[in-house]
Structures are given as C-alpha cells and as structure tokens.
Amino acid sequence: MKNFEISVLDLAPVKRDKTIHDTYQDSLSLAKYVEDLGYKRFWLAEHHNMESIASSATSVLIGFIANGTRKIRVGSGGIMLPNHSSLIIAEQFGTLESLFPGRIDLGLGRAPGTDGLTAQALGRNPAIINEQFPKQILELQKYFSKENSDALVRAIPGEGLDIPMYILGSSTDSAWLAAELGLPYAFAGHFAPEQMEMAFNIYREHFVPSKYLEKPYIIACVNGVAAETSEEAHLISTTLYQAFINIIRNDRKPFAPPVVDMDDIWSPMEKSMVLQKLKFTLIGNQKEIEEKLKSFQERFKVDEIMINSHIYDHAKRLESYHIFRKAKNSVFGE
C-alpha cells in the first residue's frame, strides 16, 4: 500500500456561543498542535456570507497562522480565484511567501464559496467562469515568473517566487484542467464525494508533465472524527451531521454541540442526503480509523489525505487529530 502524507483543512468554524476571535485562536491552537504532530500542511478555505465559517479573508488568516507557527506549510484550500483579480492574489501570496519563505501554498478553485446573491456582490460573472479560471491560472504563473520582469504589469512582491499552485475540484472539470496544466490536484471529498474516484482516474490518465510537476500528485480531503471510543466518536460527529443539515436547509448558523439522537433533528430524506455526502467520512476509535485509512488508501492510492474535522469541543478536536496521526503511524509502522 502506498504511503501518504497527512494534512489539515480548517474552515475556521464558528461555534454557538463563541466569538470569531475565539475561532481564530482555536485555529492557531490547532495549527500549532498538528505542527508538533508532524502534519504536512494546514490549509484554510475561502467562504463568504456564512455565520458558521470565518475564513472569508483567507490570505489574512493564512498570514496569522503562518506567523504563529514555525515549519508547517500554510495555504489556501482554496482561494476562489474568479472572486479576485489574478494580480491581487499574486501580490498577496507573494507577500506571504516573502514573509514566510518556503511555507506558503496556493490552492485555487473556481466555485464562489457562497450563495448566488453573494457571488454577485463579489463581482463574479458566471457566464465566463469556465473560460476565466484557466486564464487566471496562467496569469498567476506569469506574474510569479522571473520572465515577467520586463512586463508593464508586475507582481511585486511575487515575481520570481516559487509558490506551489494546486488545482481544487469538487467535480471532474478541474481534474481535466489540473492534468492539462501539469499541476497537483486536490479533491473536495469532504462535501462532494460522488465524482471523486472518476476525477482521480481522469487526472492520472491525462496528466501532462510540466516544469512544475513530473508526475501526478493527488490530495483527497475528507471529514474525520476520531475519539478514544467508537461511541464517543459517533456522538461528537453529530456536530458534523448538523452542519450538513444546515446546508440542506440553507441555514448558515454557527456550529452546534453534539446531540444524543439525530433522529430528533433530521428527516429520513435529510438523513439519506447527509450520509450520501459523508460517504467517505472517517469516524471511530484509533483501531477503526486505522482500518478506514487503509481501506481508503487501498482504493484511492492518493499522495496525501487532508482531514477536515468539525468537532464542537476544541480539546476533543485536538485529540481527534492526534488519534489520526497515531493511526497513520500504526498503519505504516512509523
């Protein structure tokens, strides 16, 4: 079985009865904790107009996390590129890389990270998104290149810096693009698992080596909830279930504490919908997580598993990532 790296996706989750300041302090605490555990990278995702997620100013938050850590890679999972000008993102990430050399990743997606009305407020034009996104990636590569030093428009800081770029996807569309451009590919299996396997196959089969990457590199993002006992893991995972119910109901309220019985909250149809979206979620005690990691990796053979963990109690969230680290080490005898 192919070995893999282990990383973190953080949405800066806002919890009921907690402030956004509390959220950011918890994110920093988590980043420091997983850094000490040997996690490879810590990514933050751009979302807008959601009371439950505070990572809208993603570049600013990346700087906060990078400044509070020492060696873990910090980046975007992702920047929703059509929400921004390519030049602004080149300058922002050029600034971050200049402040924290060798530690900044730039993950790029095309989705709005929000609802339709807010997408309009962000200045997006849905009619040109599919054409705009690949064009913007090429613009970023140009702005980061040394050869752009003679251009009339330059990214300073940014020019000449080695900032790894990753294509994000939640369907097969971005798999084709990542393969064509020869860039690493990250799939959002934590909320859109239906096409993940097909997307990986497309990316591998059509990958074209580039100056950025010689062979395919795949990151699979999944939800993970681990605890000392299986019973506790399933109890604290009800925060995750409630978060998905809120998405289905278009209710963006902060994350809720665990509940004993989800049947008091969801309907049979909602339950079916949630469980379908969470089909690759890893829940359990350490032994169960070991088996689920092995099963997942035997099927998908990825280079990296990125774990998103919606757990209400911060101490239990830290412990969950500790159990995942121990489970991964046990699987590979590390």
TrEMBL record:
Matches recorded under InterPro entries = Bact_Lucif_Oxidored (IPR050766), CmoO-like (IPR019949), Luciferase-like_dom (IPR011251), Luciferase-like_sf (IPR036661)
Matching entries from Pfam families are given as: Bac_luciferase
Record-annotated Luciferase-like domain positions: 22-298
Protein family according to the UniProt entry: To bacterial alkanal monooxygenase alpha and beta chains.
The entry's protein name is LLM class flavin-dependent oxidoreductase
Q: Which organism is it from?
A: Chryseobacterium oryzae
Q: What is the lineage of its organism?
A: Bacteria, Pseudomonadati, Bacteroidota, Flavobacteriia, Flavobacteriales
